[in-house]
Design a protein that fits this description.
Number of helices: 18
CATH architecture: Up-down Bundle
Helix content: over 70%
Structural class: mainly alpha
CATH topology: Growth Hormone, Chain: A
CATH superfamily: MFS general substrate transporter like domains
Low-confidence stretches: 1-7, 463-478
Largest sheet: 2 strands, parallel
Radius of gyration: 22 Å
Strand order of the largest sheet: 1-2
């Protein structure tokens, strides 16, 4: 990496792009998992409980579909509970690991291989109505993705100076959304609703199997690219001076140390960030978990509409990630996150008033999709990109370079605990209200609370900080 000019630092664009292949694999698998698995669970439990086909259940008993959402929530949450335990463990272990290929790479490679092998068995066992085996495969995938996820995420701050992490986070998140885009395109052409909305004997396994196989293959390819191009130990030695300068330029008033305990101000700031993060992940994961069922069972629209939402939200997110670092340079990371949360709240308030359309457009009786939701998803995608882009760098700003894995574990402990609780809690809300419109109301309330907590409680930010390189100067392609 080239040295700074006039006290600034330059981001190595090529290396950051290559680190992004880790995020490519993560969001690719997550998009397939979140888009297909909740509907698999809804379908298999509803058919077992009521002993009728899914098509008959959907057409004649929508309340029964809502009644099983709490079970769906429990299954989705159990995997997240395991992840909540494993993420900090793998973060601490990778901090202390020393191997010829680095401290993060062994976990990334093993986690990728096991997850990729197990992933295609989820739709296979669902198709053959084996709920126990399906849930076991889901658990294996989630647990080994946690082995992969924490070290993969920690890899960026390992080799990026603190002031540049917001920009770097934007680049690697864009790479992640490209991974999600592969899954989304598959969902448009291989419609889950074409599988769900037909008689059980007419279901074709390949419709649901192909996305999982392709996701596994691409995940292995992305891990191989990462392994072949990012030599952890060599890079860490090369950038020692830049990392030390980054410590001096950190955007917090109280400096951090390997030996001294966290200052009270830094500890309060960390807890405030994690508390707000917990709330916004409660909201965002609720939408991500149930939006597929919301579209199929409440709006009675074709499942490919969910994928179009994902594309629109993803494009808006890419725009947000691309400019979030620049916005943060102007107004600071705190106010960038607060602004992102505020516009997300506005979008979700609009969603609260969306109702199913009356016009029938599909061969299986699907209704036209409400176009207003496309605007909602664009605003939400942009807003949450600002939030996600700046929040993780704020957490690892509060630790030394030797504790990045540990603090990455804190970040994901907050997010995964939220994702453990929210599917069950919202599933119970559905059971009590018997109303799909509870989804946007629930998410709106939590986003409002997260905005209040974050804006009011996150303090101890350095009032004046050194200037980074900007524009093309900030990108070093060596």
């Amino acid at each position: 990496m080239s040295k700074e000019r006039s006290g600034g630092l330059k981001l190595n664009l090529r290396r950051t792009f290559l680190i992004g292949f880790a995020f490519f694999g993560i969001l690719l698998l997550w998009q397939v998992y979140d888009s297909w698995c909740p509907t698999f669970l809804t379908d298999i439990f509803a058919r077992r409980m009521y002993h009728i086909s899914s098509a008959e259940l959907k057409a004649g008993s929508p309340d029964k579909i809502l009644n099983v959402q709490w079970i769906v929530g429990i299954i989705m949450a159990c995997d997240n509970l395991a992840a909540l335990i494993l993420l900090p463990i793998f973060g601490n272990l990778s901090d202390k690991t020393k191997t010829p290929i680095g401290k993060r790479m062994p976990y990334i490679l093993v986690g990728t291989l096991v997850s990729a092998v197990a992933f295609p068995f989820i739709p296979l066992f669902f198709h053959y109505n084996n709920v126990v085996a399906m849930v076991i495969m889901m658990a294996i995938v989630l647990m080994f993705m946690m082995m992969y996820r924490n070290p993969a995420v920690a890899l960026m701050p390992d080799i990026t100076p603190k002031p540049l992490r917001a920009k770097a986070n934007g680049i690697i998140n864009i790479m992640g959304y490209l991974g999600g885009a592969f899954a989304t395109v598959l969902g448009i052409f291989l419609k889950l609703s074409d599988y769900i909305n037909v008689a059980d004997e007419a279901r074709k396994l390949w419709i649901i199997e192909i996305p999982f196989i392709i996701a596994s293959i691409l995940m292995v390819v992305s891990a191989f690219v990462l392994f072949a191009t990012i030599k952890e130990n060599k890079i860490a030695e090369q950038i020692k001076d830049e990392m030390e300068l980054g410590e001096q330029m950190a955007a917090i008033e109280n400096p951090v140390s390997d030996d001294a305990p966290m200052s009270p101000a830094n500890k309060r700031m960390l807890l405030a960030i994690l508390g707000a993060e917990f709330l916004w992940f409660m909201a965002d994961n609720a939408i991500g978990t149930y939006i597929g069922n919301y579209v199929i069972y409440y709006l009675n629209s074709v499942s490919s509409a969910t994928m179009l939402l994902t594309i629109i939200g993803g494009v808006a997110s890419v725009v947000g990630f691309a400019i979030a670092g620049t916005i943060a340079d102007k107004i600071g990371r705190k106010w960038t996150i607060s602004f992102g949360l505020a516009i997300t709240v506005v979008a979700l308030i609009v969603m609260c008033f969306v109702v199913p359309t009356k016009s029938v457009v599909g061969a299986n009786g699907e209704h036209a999709f409400p176009k207003l939701l496309f605007a909602v998803w664009a605003i939400k995608g942009f807003g949450m990109a600002l939030v996600h882009n700046c929040s993780f760098p704020m957490v690892v700003e509060l630790c030394s370079n030797k504790k990045i894995g540990k603090f990455t574990g804190y970040y994901y402990a907050a997010s995964m605990s939220a994702q453990t609780i929210t599917p069950i809690l919202l599933g119970l809300v559905f059971k009590v209200t018997l109303a799909w419109r509870a989804l946007p109301v629930y998410a709106t309330v939590l986003f409002v609370l997260s905005c209040i907590v974050f804006t009011a409680l996150v303090k101890n930010i350095k009032a004046k900080k050194l200037q980074n390189a900007h524009g093309l100067e900030a990108l070093d392609g060596d």
